[in-house]
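Late entry, written up from scratch paper. The run itself happened at the end of the previous shift, but nothing got recorded in the book at the time, so transcribing now.
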Amino acid sequence: MKHLSRMVIAAVFATPAMAALAGEKECAPGYSYTTLNDPLALPPTTNANGINDKGDIVGTYGDASGYHGFLYSGGKYTTLNVPLAYDTYAFGINNKGDIVGYGVASGSIYGFLYSGGKYTTLSDPQGQFTEAYGINNKGQIVGQFNDSAGLRHGFLYSNGKYTTFDDPLATGGPNGTFARGINNDGQIVGYYADKASAIQGFLYKDGKYTTLDDPLATGGTQFSGINNRNEIVGSYATTGASHGFLYSNGKYTPINDPLGPSDSPALGINDKGEIVGFYHDASGAHGFLAIQCAK
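Output as recorded:
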């Protein structure tokens, strides 16, 4: 399942209903983890990708027909399918309930905004294969697109206008710059491929790019989400494994679901510090919700 499990060179307080459905686990070091499985996923192929301050979670699940987005809200899963797309991936949600992601159709990949029950296509005019990943409460959207040569570029969509941005160190061939999250201050996180094709995390703030890498990474660092407290989540790679982390106040904290200790990337964070992502076990991929334990 390449879109759901790749390292990519591609939370609410647990309510009784949520715990009953997903199976809340006792507190692991620092965090309590709850498994999230869309009941329509077959075999287990659920990724939790984004969360807002209301605890609404978006992600993607797979079944025999392909991949579908989902919204998990109030203990209920709702399927999201972009019209005319055979695969749908939902990645970001803001406090208004606006959802972004992308759809895959024959020979095309295009971003979408789902708002008020309506899908709006997002397609950067400077390229092709547009993917939307993050949205803030102002409705600003970030993602990436491929140009005619196949090189990836980050984009910001705001007030009807697309702005391209590229980390100046993104010189590692076609992998380019990936934009994954944005907060209300316009700070953007993502990752890029450097001249050695190594994957490096970045923070774009006040017109400046800052490279940030988890010190435990031996195979690259990806930043995936940022909240309005400037807390960042992402993942880093080691040999044969991908591990989640929280980056806050200059410190990296591991975020690893104990059921998937060797593959547990963190993908989204809200202003309460609740984190979503996914882990792998022998049966497949499962979403998780991580909530910091009471001190």
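The radius of gyration is 17 Å.
(Scratch paper discarded after transcription.)
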